[in-house]
Write a structure and sequence with these properties.
Layout: E1 2-4, H1 10-23, H2 28-38, H3 41-50, E2 53-63, E3 66-76, E4 83-91, H4 100-114, E5 119-124, H5 130-136, E6 138-145, E7 148-156
Parallel strand pairs: 4-5
Antiparallel strand pairs: 1-2, 2-3, 3-4, 5-7, 6-7
Amino acid sequence: MIKEINYLDSVEMNIARELLIKSIPHCKDDINLSFSLLKNVELMTEHKENYDLVDSRLFGFFSENKLIGISGLYSLEEDSFEAYWINWFAIDDRYTRLGIGTQMFKFLEKRVEEEKKDFLRVYTTIPELKGFWEKQASFYNEELEDGITYYYFQKKLI
């Protein structure tokens, strides 16, 4: 079962936040900010304007009523006419290597196709995840910024 994050109860929200922090510890501050923004519409609006976000949605992925994964979609003003980006992507350690990540990607891919966008894009700063993303999409760029390497992938949909 999949639920939009806006409809998660407070316990599920905390589980989702902790799942992301465990999976992407170097993004803890950004994760905490994202979850605090979900609770404050005014701050969310300001944040979207500051980062040229056109749209942003998070989804919880469940197995037997237990949150086991989280991911989402966002679009940027600069490419919103053609693409959505994957926002956060984490799976409970007990459910890795079972195809859950691929199922999550397929769900997001379908949502983007329904929006009639040409591309689904994602970046990661975690080298160990390059292999996963190469199975889902095509590698198209690598950038070094402030000592961090960003790996960019996209899937052509239409």
